[in-house]
Amino acid sequence: MYHGEDGVWSAPRRVEDLFALPGEGEQRERWRALLPRFEYLLDDLTAEQAETLLARPGPPLARLTWRVLRYGRSAELAHRLTQWTVLFAEMNAAPEGSEHLLVIIRYITWVGSVAAHNAARQVLHSVVDAQAAETLMKSHGERLVERAQRWGERRGRQWGLEQGLEQGRLQGHAELVLRILTARGIHVGDEAQQRILSCKDLATLDRWFDRALNATTLSDVLDDLSS
């Protein structure tokens, strides 16, 4: 199963396709007959249209997993999540539904955008009670805090290759602060988000990061929020 963010699957699907066979026509086919095919089955979700994906049969977990994998790294996820509320409810009602729901939410909170996180929270409040919804959203947040520093460093290195090491560190720290706030269920408006992303002072970003770990409101993190 493939759901990469770089487009449809393009690698050869048979071993015989890795060989440049000699000759032409019938001669080449005789050579081909001597090669093992070893063809594998490929489910390329990136090539699936939304309508085709919706028509796939299967238990609620499988049908929801295909959709979340297909759109998880795209800007469409936030919009589509609210369309899958009924499917979320079906999966939650199935045996081991709460465990399956947790797995899906973990994936969304790890790869999705801030908008996707907010949409997931909205869907959960429609499926389970408010306390259970917040528990599900925060359960992965705790793991996110534990891995936050490592994630920030990796993100910083990635940006460093493209825009310089210092800019990469700033960008990585800023996005890390936003991830922590989202994991803790704190709404970050456009103005505050822009303020964090445009910050060029590493010490300030570090201070915001430390505060975000235990914050309950946005004002607990940002200095002079009114400005």
Assembly type of the chains comes to single chain
**Order of helix and strand elements from N to C terminus:** HHHHHHHHHHH
Task: Tell me the Rg in angstroms.
Answer: 23 Å
- Main beta-sheet annotation: none
Poorly predicted runs of 5 or more residues:
none
End-to-end Cα distance: 49 Å
Mean model confidence by pLDDT = 82
Helical content (DSSP H or I, runs of 4+): 55-70%
Structural class: mainly alpha
Percent strand equals under 5%
Number of strands: 0
Shape: flat
Give the number of helices. 11
Any overview of this molecule?
This protein is mainly α and about 230 residues long. The chain has helices spanning about 25-35, 50-55, 60-70, 75-80, 85-95, 95-110, 115-125, 130-165, 165-185, 190-195, 200-210.
Short structural summary:
The chain is built from eleven helices and no strands. The protein has helices at residues 25-33, 50-54, 60-71, 77-81, 85-93, 97-111, 114-127, 130-163, 165-183, 190-197, 202-212.
Task: Supply database-style keywords.
mainly alpha, 11 helices, about 0% strand
Q: Which helices and strands appear, and what pairs or packs with what?
A:
Layout: H1 25-33, H2 50-54, H3 60-71, H4 77-81, H5 85-93, H6 97-111, H7 114-127, H8 130-163, H9 165-183, H10 190-197, H11 202-212
